[in-house]
UniProtKB/TrEMBL annotation:
Belongs to the amino acid-polyamine-organocation (APC) superfamily. Pfam families: AA_permease_2. It is found in: Apical cell membrane. The chain crosses the membrane at residues 26-47, 59-80, 175-197, 217-241, 253-276, 296-316, 336-365, 377-397, 409-430, 436-456. It comes from the Eukaryota. GO terms for cellular component: apical plasma membrane. This is Solute carrier family 7 member 13. It is a multi-pass membrane protein. The lineage of its organism: Eukaryota, Metazoa, Chordata, Craniata, Vertebrata. It comes from Anser brachyrhynchus (Pink-footed goose). GO terms for molecular function: L-amino acid transmembrane transporter activity. InterPro entries: AA/rel_permease1 (IPR002293), AminoAcid_Transporter (IPR050598). Keywords: Cell membrane, Disulfide bond, Membrane, Transmembrane, Transmembrane helix, Transport.
Amino acid sequence: MGKGKSDDAKKVKRKGNTKMQLKRNIGYFDGVSFIIGSIVGAGIFVSPTGVLKHSLLNVGVALVIWTASGLVSLMGSLCYAELGTALPFSGGEYSHIKRGLGSLPAFMFIWTSVFTKPASNAARALLFAEYATQPFYGICPAPEVLKKCLALAVLWSLGILNGRSVKMAAWVQTVFTLLKMMALSVIAVSGIVLLVGGRKETLARFEDMFSSEMPNVSQIAEAFFQGLYAYGGWWSLNYMAEEMKNPSRNIPLTVMTAVPAVIVFYLLVNISYLTVLTPKEIVSSVAVAVTWADRVIPSVAWIIPLSVAVSIFGALNSSMFTLGRLSYAGSQAGHLPVLISMLSVHTCTPAPAMIFSTTIASIFIIPSDLLMLTNYFGFSAWLMIGLTCASLIVLRYREPNLHRPYKVFLPVPFMMVAMSFFLVLAPIIWSPNLQYVYAFLFMLGSFIVYLPFVHFKMHFAFLDKITCHLQLLLEVSPADGSAESKHE
């Protein structure tokens, strides 16, 4: 969308003889921090009730579903590990769909993501503001204006941080991931200690955990939805593949460390909740971890709301980092304005991409009602996962000689494709809603933009002047050829 460049743009001087491309600054531990940070948000602290509720308070079924949801997430992340090592480009699913299925499905993905992912970031920022301000207001609700101002401040602080320094963003991510895992460890270890020296009624809850009423197929499926939602974010690593040190080794290793670690922590934390609280108490609690803390560590129960805020902050940082890379990759392919794929001449970071994605997220914060619209786009995430795994299968047959440092067992992507399309269709069939039609029409609306601006390359000359002025203002320069173009 607008690839013309003015000669005036060359006025922006590069720092020394710096080669303008993303730097490989992200190591193994940074990658593990980003994946864990993306997956573990507020959900496990606040509302791990959905799985138990739809399992009809059957403890055994609930724990099996938590495990199965984690294993499905691990299968998906192994598929992504193959794509990330074979095609180590920024952009995650977008780059893989573009290579495997073509430009149009990739454009549909970025068209939808430019709407849904910033909205998700806006929702996280507002939730952070809720938890950060509530201790100062006690039982009274915090003013909406204050929460929105704080949410905007957090969004732009992280946007600027990610736009200026990858190393600093990775450091922040590592610190906040360690803090949230320490909080989860307190809950998990306390639960194990209480269970080992537990009362008879507590032990009986686990000895006869399958004895209560069994849920039917649709209830199990609904519980499964809730479990998979809690593991959302396992796909984040591929967005930073172009910045990973030794991606052939580190991407599979990172995935195989981070996702199983989250599965183990989720199971231990749920067992800890069930050790202290009855299933009915868990389902009726507004914030399970807070109720748990009031029972187990009442003198320092304030640690849990603080941990929730820390957890949301870390997840938001990770999400903003990946969204900036998606915008950058889309612009490099000509699917977004050319300015967005430019890099800072001082730091070689995609500063315009971060400004673009943070601005859209800010728009969602100001009138919060817009966030309600995004509830009906949940199916689109699994549609894109299905298309990405389908791309893997297509590339296996179409490009058999493509260098693949890591290869997943081929039935796994077939299973992921089947599961993805089930997860797309099930909510629409079981609870049909007109809003799903609107969401689907919005996705199809991408064709209206794609045909003139991408396929026929319609271009307006005045955009070149705007791009040039913004380039000089932001001190950014076009990247020296994408890693993807070199690979092809």
